[in-house]
Amino acid sequence: MHTRLKERLWAYIVQNNPDLMFNLQEEYAVIHYLEEKVSKVMPMALRLIGEGREGHAIEELCVNEMTKELRPSRYNYICNLLEQQYRYVYYSHRESGNLTYLAVSLVEHCRDTFNELGFSEKNQKEQSIHAAILEKVGEYLAEKNNKR
Fold first, then answer.
1. Which residue ranges in the chain fall short of pLDDT 50?
2. Which of 12, 77, 140, 147 is deepest in the core (most CB within 10 A)?
């Protein structure tokens, strides 16, 4: 189960938090991060096994717990915003294979704004957050356009 949980956590990070994935890889901290996260949920997993829960249900509960602080995905939020508000940018970067790079760069550019606004699952749909992040994305794209 330990290995399976590490695999599931890594798959989640790759899909929903590539900014974290790149940072962990750059710092050679992937194994340490995964081990630490899985170790923290193993007592819960063992308790659930003792209660007779099924393996897939245990995995889901553990993955949900390990990814709690990674939700909502800022990366997915940025990608959705790009697709809705900057369709040409979104699709041209997707077709060229650069969408992940652009979105990760935007997550970094918007990091302080996300933090200041307390971006969370509870408030991710608030218009004030959408407007603030949209403004930061617009700044970033305009800056990149001016450099060309």
1. none
2. 77
